[in-house]
Amino acid sequence: MQNSLHRALLVVAALCMIPKGQGLSPAPLAVKMFGLSLNTGLNNQLFTLFTLKVYENKIIQADPMTREQFVLQAQGAVPSEANPTGENLFEKYGVTACLEYRPDSTLIRLQDCWVFDELWKLRFWEYPFRLQEGQHPGKGWAEKREAPSARQLLLLTDYGILHMSDVARGESAFRLLRDVADSSWVDNYRKGY
User: Fold this and answer.
1) Where are the domains of the chain?
2) pTM
3) Residue 10 has pLDDT above 60, yes or no
4) Which residues make Cβ contacts (< 8 Å) with residue 177, sequence separation at least 6?
5) Can you state the angle between helices 183-191 and 171-180, rounded to 10 degrees?
6) Exposure string (b/e) for 142-153, b if CB count within 10 Å is 16 or more?
7) pLDDT tens for residues 82-97?
8) Which of 148, 146, 126 is closest to 137 using CA atoms?
9) pLDDT tens, position by position, 103-139
10) What is the DSSP string of 137-192?
């Protein structure tokens, strides 16, 4: 007993001798962030939006959300663990397709964003669902009928999408939304320049 007490005192003494700021680093915490997948999701959307919990660069929890929830939380209009500061992440990451200003330059909070309607085009060359009368969603951008080509997948790796089941997360999800609204990026994606 006296031996173990002696060892414990030596450990405490050694820890006291470590200069401030050089002690043991705190354990990493899981981080909440937004995510986007090109897989079919809620309400037959041709993409899925998430609130993710990421620990040591691995997704440990993925909670799907509607596009309205995503827009409101990403704008900071509704509290979100993925946006704890409540800033407008569309503005922060330059997703101008999801921003609208009044004539006096004040930002309008949108309920939706048209860029989500373009996401299916990354994956398909034709709209994959039966169209109702009067619907004309246009052609997709994929080089193959039901999936992007290998070259197009290579472009998507810049957003963390190496396979169609992968999720663009955090800043990468917002960069993808920004780029999908950029006609020169779309032209490159379609034609392979």
Assistant:
1) 67-188
2) 0.81
3) no
4) 36, 90, 93, 95, 97, 98, 113, 115, 116
5) 90
6) bbeeebbeeebb
7) 999 999 999 999 999 9
8) 126
9) 877 777 778 899 999 999 999 998 887 666 656 667 8
10) ------SSSSS--HHHHHHHGGGT-SSTT-EEETHHHHHHHHHHT-HHHHHHHHH-
